[in-house]
Amino acid sequence: MDTPDPLLSVEGLHVSYGAKQVLRGIDYHVSEREVVAVLGANGSGKSTSLNTISGFVSSNAGRIVFDGSDVTALPAHRIFRLGVIQVSQSRDLFPFLTVEHNLRLGGVIRNRHEIEDRLEQVFEYFPRLKERRGQQARTLSGGEQQMAAIGRAIMARPRLLLLDEPSGGLAPQFINEIGTIIQALKDDGATILMVEQNLALAFKVADRFIILRDGTVSDGGFVRSLEGNYDDIVRTIYL
Fold first, then answer.
1. Do 14 and 53 fall into the same domain?
2. Which terminus of the chain is more exposed, N or C, with fewer CB under 10 A?
3. What is the span of the domain harbouring residue 106?
4. Would you state the pLDDT for residue 168?
5. How many domains in the chain?
6. Cα→Cα distances 129→102, 124, 125, 143, 166, Å
7. Cβ(9)–Cβ(48) under 8 Å?
């Protein structure tokens, strides 16, 4: 049986900010219904790789292929319409709009019926957001804002969900909740590429890991179920 093509392929990707080279020819792929975690020390190029896939950062060389089409030169709004949806570290909520209004904005490319159905599904994933649907986003805790940001992305029915540091700055209680939600999305067939510093969370939900070091891929094939890999990954990232 032929192996299906990956949903996302990053091929020889180079990215620079001025004279500073951040990504140096990285290659990796993500298959459908897979959760892949990009790991690495600060400054290794993790978030840059996600921002380039989303079209927010331009590459200098290489290409990005999504569902068989080269999307390297596409603007961010066209990549969004193809179903590549990113939740950034800053969450980018509209602070004076209610939780529900923020969520509905995520479904802007869907019809009214789809929006209503999707909203109920988001509330099933995030009962806490249903309780706070009439509150302004600025009144939420950091963990609740992260839930709202992920919920808004889900409203668009992403084919590939990009999560940039979903546990960043959160209390342990919310990190556990975010992990449970990512696992629920995975169980429902979502395809997720996530940047994460919290190795415990990454080990909980990821099928595979891509380790970046100084803008290159150090290793892309650890399997989370093997007991010794945690120490191996820590050594690869930090030593």
1. yes
2. N
3. 93-156
4. 87
5. 2
6. 11, 9, 9, 11, 17
7. no
Residue 88 lies in a domain: no
Q: Hey, what are 38's tokens?
A: 């990009």
| 8: nearest Cα among 60, 86, 99 | 86
**Type of residue at 147:** M
* Per-residue model confidence (pLDDT) at position 226: 46
Query: How many C-beta atoms surround the C-beta of residue 32 within 10 A?
Result: 15
Distance CA 29, CA 48 (A): 16
Question: How far are the Cα atoms of 42, 59, 212 from residue 48, in angstroms, in the given order?
Answer: 11, 10, 11
Tell me the per-residue pLDDT of 82-105, one tens digit each, with 9 for 90 and over: 999 999 988 889 999 999 999 999
The pLDDT value given to residue 113: 87
Q: Is 174 exposed, middle or buried (0-12, 13-18, 19+ CB in 10 A)?
A: buried
Helix axes 172-187, 112-125, angle to 10 degrees: 130
> Residues 234, 172: one domain?
yes
Could you read off the pLDDT of 172-199 as tens digits, one per residue?
Answer: 888 999 999 999 999 999 999 999 989 8
Backbone angles phi, psi at 9, to 5 degrees: -130, 130
